[in-house]
Amino acid sequence: MACMASDDDDLGAHVLLRTSREAYATAARRLAEDRQVWAYQERAGTADPGTVRLELSVGDATCALEPAEIRAIFAELAGTGERSGG
Q1: pLDDT, tens only, 61-72
Q2: Which of the residues 8, 49, 67, 85 has an alpha carbon 20 to 30 A from that of 77?
Q3: For residue 67, what pLDDT is reported?
């Protein structure tokens, strides 16, 4: 996977996750505490109360992660990961 970012030019995008705002906040706190992975705490609601929108910013630390690690992080945030029982 090619990933190139610098402090001056981080890559960013919006991501939609099918989860509640409360479940997302809980998962984000757990990731920070357990795995030292910081997920953006501010999330925007959508017309669907079961979907949250967040900003994805990719920098050097993110580029160092393996694709499987990134999948696992998003699965936890969406409530479908191993840790969440999904």
Answers
A1: 888 889 999 999
A2: 8
A3: 92
